[in-house]
Amino acid sequence: MIRKSPLILRIIDELVADGQLGQSVLQRHFSKGHSLFAQGASTSNVYFIRSGIVKCTFTEDQEKEYILEFLGEGEVLGEIEAICKTPAMSTVRTISELSTYMMDKTSFLDLLRRHAGFNAAILELMAVRLVNTATRSARQQLNTLEHNLANLLEVLEYERLPCTKQELADYLGITLRSLNRLLGGRVV
Amino acid sequence: MIRKSPLILRIIDELVADGQLGQSVLQRHFSKGHSLFAQGASTSNVYFIRSGIVKCTFTEDQEKEYILEFLGEGEVLGEIEAICKTPAMSTVRTISELSTYMMDKTSFLDLLRRHAGFNAAILELMAVRLVNTATRSARQQLNTLEHNLANLLEVLEYERLPCTKQELADYLGITLRSLNRLLGGRVV
DNA sequence: TTTTATTTGGGACATTTGTCCCACGCCCTG
DNA sequence: CAGGGCGTGGGACAAATGTCCCAAATAAAA
After folding, report:
1. Strand (E) positions, chain A?
2. Strand C closer than 7 A to residue A188 Cβ
3. pTM of this prediction?
4. Continuous H helices in B19-115
5. Is B158 on the interface with A (CB under 8 A)?
6. Angle, in degrees to the nearest 10, between helices A145-154 and A176-183
7. For residue range B61-74, what is the model confidence (pLDDT) as tens digits?
8. Which residues are registered as beta bridge partners of A167?
């Protein structure tokens, strides 16, 4: 449920340690509840999560919000916007303390061009995300109850995931009421 | 609704014209209804659509199937499997005559490594797909009726899209009955 | 042309999900 | 301590969606 990418973090860690990235990378820390990107706003940086968790949300009419994904260690934020040169497609908000490496978009694109290993890692990261996003979307339409249950079992992580029932419901794309029903009297 | 990518097609066309790809690329033609990939099966090639349309579907229990996307000119098939070295994540079937360039996975990865422009184009293709997949997933959860209507209006393309009502319903993630209700007596 | 299958459209009812509303428990602050 | 805000849990009813089934229209096959 929480996506991670140890490989990317390792690459960045090494590059930073070697001093190869010079001034283009700096560490930044965010407290819980802080907003890194606002859907529709332009962006100027790319972040690599060193530790902590963020949630990416999408909203259409400001009322309800849909949670696209939870991202943890090694995950990259803002890379899509850097690559496509488009405004932020989703809002990204921390749901725990967050430690990151921050890099401006130009440096990111540069690194992508010059560092073959990094390039391959980002390609794979995006491919994996695409698969996850697509299968989740499909499962949500195909399974309904079963998937909910399966997912809620998978929520062993739930205890580690500092999120509210409302957020879980947003993730499942249902209302809080419905979630409660599923959690409560399983039998009709 | 039907995704396309003129840029990629142009790049491949040029490479083929220049003869830079040698034997690694060949043209292949498929008739309507043919299956290029089967979900879960291993793959060995990557395809570039020259003309025609395919639908990518995902199924969980073989009963219902969810349509992930319709792909047209310039779109790439099998690139995710090549990059991640995983089995096909979805089934891909032609819904019209299809003309393609076919390339084995190794050559594809090679081209990705050697050709900066191609690399950038694929990166952007995947980023765009990710955005589309994610926003569609989100909208499907957030909008319900409105989105359906909006989408069905967008189905001006409907006439060009040789698909059945059942396929439209699969795309929307609803049953055929529900689709008919939405199309028919709009008012309760 | 007749027959058979596919596609389409819709009625009737069960099930699911959403909406509205209320209540309890917890934390925090005045 | 009292009151406000928030997260949680659930009852009751409305609305949406699925399931089952049937019928007309269209396309494909005999």
Report:
1. 2-3, 25-30, 35-37, 45-51, 54-59, 65-71, 76-77, 91-94, 98-104
2. yes
3. 0.89
4. 79-84, 105-114
5. no
6. 80
7. 767 888 999 999 99
8. none
